[in-house]
Amino acid sequence: MTAILLTGKTGQVGWELQRALAPLGNVVAPDRSEMDHSNPDSIRAAVRATRPDVIVNATGYTTVDKAESEPDLLERVNVVAPGVLAEEAKRIGAPLVHYSTDYVYDGTLDRPYTEDDEPNPVNAYGRSKLAGERAIEAAGGTHLILRTSWVYSARRSNFVLAILRLAREKTELSVVSDQAGSPSWARALADATAALLRQRDLFGQQGGVYHLSANGHTSRYDFARAIVRIARDISGRPNGWADIRPISSDQYPLPARRPRSPVTDKSRIRRAFGITMPDWEAQLTAFLREFAAAKIS
Ligand SMILES: NC(=O)c1ccc[n+]([C@@H]2O[C@H](COP(=O)([O-])OP(=O)(O)OC[C@H]3O[C@@H](n4cnc5c(N)ncnc54)[C@H](OP(=O)(O)O)[C@@H]3O)[C@@H](O)[C@H]2O)c1
């Protein structure tokens, strides 16, 4: 039976991967106490104890604003750890699947980015994710690096959960309209990853960097409006939802600068593996339906 080492099982994507990868083999999923990504020895020990056939790394330092003021931990988790994992993976001949971000781009291009466009991250998180990619490539083993975007789920904190809460607490919400992305449900990302792993005999030839996020893109403002509109329709309660107003990024300063529109072209992964994730609005509707049903039951 295929042994799959899955890291980051308590996170948004890792949580969904536990379910999505289960039919593919024996999933071994250590948590932080069993495999600490800020400690290379802990990573090596966990890989050597498991001797997996494939490694899926859903761990990451993901708090974009805090990343500006925690450079050491950021470097250990997002740069050193992926490099160590990639070296260990190569040593045992296991392919490594790793998640990166559209924040490796500055978002100033007037067309969707392809994987061949030059990255130029504008914040510490984006720089660390790009350096993590480079560390994996430098190890020289078989790998897939999946650059995803605006992940949400029912777990942890994310844009969708924040808008759902604030839209009921406030009468008016201001949301930036000059940043675009492809909002991706962690569930759909996990399912796409499982579909990739089913074709892992192709990783040797087709390995490398891929964009993997929801089909289509939207602004933060239009995303927030869609969240409220769909949640309101599902709830059957027409009143008591905040009005959403557009503002510019300049009117909403944060510790970390955000790339403007790092919209990605996803045709490479479709050509190589036949994989297209559903449209962002279809994913959001499915998520909100499930979220509402879980709250009622
Ligand atoms: N969220 C997004 O919008 C987004 C967008 C683009 C790309 N990505 C990338 O997608 C991947 C998954 O993101 P996500 O949203 O699922 O992340 P997440 O919900 O923040 O989960 C992060 C996971 O990493 C673990 N972790 C963090 N530091 C660790 C350490 N020192 N040792 C061991 N485990 C550690 C966390 O464990 P604990 O529960 O113990 O903290 C958790 O399981 C990441 O590589 C991220 O950079 C995310």
Could you give a short description of this structure?
By secondary structure, the protein is α/β, with parallel strands linked by helices. Helices cover 42% and strands 15% of the residues.
Question: Can you walk me through this structure?
Answer:
The two termini are 37 Å apart. The protein is an alpha/beta fold and 297 residues long. The mean pLDDT is 97. Helices cover 42% and strands 15% of the residues. Helix 3 (71-92) runs parallel beside helix 4, helix 5 (159-169) packs across helix 8 and helix 8 crosses helix 10 (280-296). It has 10 helices and 12 strands. Strand 1, helix 1 and strand 2 form a beta-alpha-beta unit. It has helices at 12-21, 40-50, 71-92, 124-139, 159-169, 186-197, 203-206, 220-235, 267-273, 280-296; strands spanning 3-7, 26-28, 54-57, 96-101, 143-148, 151-152, 172-176, 180-181, 184-185, 208-211, 218-219, 243-247. The strands form 4 sheets. A 6-stranded parallel β-sheet has the order 2-1-3-4-5-10, with helices on both faces. A two-stranded parallel ribbon has the order 6-9. It binds NADP nicotinamide-adenine-dinucleotide phosphate (NAP). The site of NADP nicotinamide-adenine-dinucleotide phosphate has 24 residues, from helix 1 and strand 4.
